[in-house]
Amino acid sequence: MEQEAPAGWEFFDSVDFPTDHIDDPMGRPRVRHVVTAVVVGHEGAAWLPRLSESLWALNPRPDRLIAVDTGSTDETAELLAAMPGVEPVVSVSARTGFGVAVARGLEAHGFAPIPSAVGPYGDDGHMPVVEWLWLLHDDCAPAPRALEQLLLQATMSPNTGVWGPKLRLWPRDRELLEVGVTTSLGGRRDTGIENGELDQGQHDQPRNVLAVSSAGMLVRRDVWEALRGFDPRLPMFRDDIDFGWRASRAGYQVGVAPDAVVYHAQAAATGERALAGTRRHAYQLDRAHAYYTVLANAPGKLLPLLMLRFLLGTLMRSVWFLLGKTPSGAVDEWTALLGTVLAGGWTQARKNRRKLDKVPYEDIKGLFSRSVHALRHNLEETTSTISERIREAWADEPEEQVVTTARRAKSTARVAVDQPRWRRQLIRRPFLVAWVVLAIGAVISARDLIGGGVLRSQLLLPAHENLAALWHAAAAAPPGVTPPAWLAQFWAFSAVLFGPTGATNILLLGAVPLAGLAAWALLRAFVVDRMARAWGASAYGLAVFTNGAITQGRLGTCVAAIVLPLLGAAVHTVARRRRVVVQGSWRAAWFAGICLAVLIAFTPALGLLVAVILAVGGVFGLGWRRQGRQLVFSVVLGLLLVLPWTIDLVRHPWKLGQEAGGPPTTAVGPGDSLPHLLTGTPVGAPTPWWFAVPLILVALLSLLRSSRQRYELLGWFAALAGLAGTLISSRLGGGSGPLMFLMTAGWVIAVAVAWDSVGKSTEIIVQGVLGIVLLTSVVTAGFWLVRGTDGPLWRGPAQDLPAYLVSSQDPPDNQSILVVRKAPGGQMRFSLVKDGGPRMGSLEAAPTSAQSKPITDVLATLGGGGSGEEGRQLAGLAIDYVYLPGPVDPTLQATLDSLPGLTRASADDGDASWLVDRSKVEGKTPLVDQTHSVWRFFGLLGWIIALVFCLPTVRRTVAVPQGTHARRDPR
């Protein structure tokens, strides 16, 4: 007795219900169809009730229903046993593939017996009989007329041995999944259906296809037995395409019946159930089976081209996965390709299938997807993925709310609705107004520095002429000398900022608005009040000017001012997430490591101080939890990215006082002035030290409040850390300009957070204090605009040499010029100018004293009156000119005039120069640079990896096409 039918079939459309007979419109004799259905289930308890309901609604129903359970741990076996008219459930291992599971079910129960009595259509039992095998997944639901329409098409086209239905999206959606399927020779599965395409009858013509999905596949028994079922080497994924390809090669046509509708849940592809039965990733397994299917069935003459195509495709997809921060995808690509090709199973499969070849490849070539379709599809997916990742950048992880809704509503600016739209927007976005003012002010303040030439100062050497020269300088240094790490990073800036000269102009002259923008990115994480945030960002930007970094041409401090807030924002992202499921952020940790590497390269003292603070805070402040480990990882990454510069700083600690761009900044600091030290204003800064007093007083007053915020304490901690670092650095004789800037930055944060807390207060005292803060900032901005950013920083030619000496350094002459200056104490200093003169980074990569000893010995002899051999010695050192800039020492000038081999050359007033006769001596310069290509290669590789891991993640979905993945859960 059959089980009781479920209540209600509202799942189906009314048009899906069957008619009474299967009639051939062409009037051909009726055929008796005997159908054996096999359902394979694995962890399918969530979908089997709907499948059972659909089997009750079928008319006609299968003559025999076989159910196979592949090691399910839920109620799948019980639900399979409850289906209408089902045979006893066959249980197999969870590692059993779909094709093998079907074979086990048929071995246990066999095909349905052919009735000998009167048939279902009123015949006498002598009607021609055709046996069929109908394959069903546990997460599909055939419509009531699905089997009827499949058999109707089989009656009308008796030469077609395999039929497939139209697949729609589960549970009852008109979105199309498949109406037949094919593949390209590159292994890409192609359904011909656009993503999200709705079923409007546009694919309702029955036609021949290469393959159909195994979800609802109807196979004639003789075809199934002739092809020996699915390939056991394909336990899942691509087995249906392989089966259809083999059927086409053997002369059996494969067709699709669009009037037969099957709803499919795609449980494995959508992640509704985990994969089981294999340790391989689903994506890797799908790619491996795709390669196997093509290699086992493609014509032999195409194999060399296919191998090359697979290799190029794997390489391109691997690069895409790496750029999308999914290295496991790249590993899966190469593992799938190499594992399939080297395993050799496809070679045996080719031998076994040669006897199937009854139809040449040219006759079925039109069933395959064209390569141009695959290329178009890849481009569409790439564009869609990039757009989606840009929209979801920094939003793929849950973030803890900074403030409550009430507080955020309290800080919202109220604007009268009758105001013009542009005015309302400006009032609601005060930082936009402030930033525009800063940008315009940067142009006005740089009015005396706009023009030809390059930016220079005593602390800023000229920029390189082009990117090629800068790239060479980033890895070139005398033997035993490490090239500065910041040159390679500056090359990256220059590549996107209009060359080395353009990058210098933007980073120096635009430091105020750029630093303000970076500060806004940090303050928006914990400062809610718009006015407080706008003031804090603006004050931070102006601090770059008050620190003297722009007017003195200190490129390192300007870059540090821009990068420091970005590092703070990344650290905040890592450390803030404590009360959410996902703690920390590895992407932010990678970004923090990059920012720290830039700080260490451009301002070693500041970078080392920040690295120590982060390491100690990660270990002791956050504990050795996830966030603590991420901060320590950021410190380690920052130190690794600047190798071997990190090793050089350990070997030569005095280099910690240097800044990028020019000579050591030992003169930049508070000196012996206590006011300059306490206010964080270097000696020689463009503003007087007492400009910082109101800011410090307000920061001190904020500490007296009982409701002070923890970010105020963090600001004060930064200020005190900068003060301690400044004191130590200045006493050791190192430059402390960046450390003094850290003091000012800490006070700005403390005041901005305090403003955020009391900004809505109506107390006179509070309003007066905030007014003082605003007034001080306005006065500082006005001083910035009136004074300008020139002074020690000026614009002029790259070399202070006569024109003919400058031109002599160009090819093909490439002459060397020894520039000698006599210090007030009588000591002579020199620089060997060649290839365009000293440029950025040349002092950090200066030769050692041992390497420059030959030139030093010659100058020492000249200082003692000379021996007459100095001209020949200079020629032997490959020196073409000796140049003395004014004021010239008369004794040294007389000595050089008397030397044989030196001829007086023309020079500017007050200067002197001599031409060295090298006609009799073949000279060789002792200062030959060595290119550190290995470090440059590994450094570039490390930065690429770090930048890739900072990018928004490209989510790798399992590219298992529709209609093949709900057979079992293959893990």
Automatic annotation (TrEMBL):
InterPro entries: Glycosyltransf_2, Nucleotide-diphossugar_trans. The chain crosses the membrane at residues 431-450, 506-527, 539-568, 588-619, 631-647, 687-704, 713-733, 765-786, 934-954. It holds the Pfam family Glyco_tranf_2_3. Keywords: Membrane, Transmembrane, Transmembrane helix. The keyword Transmembrane helix applies. This is GT2 family glycosyltransferase.
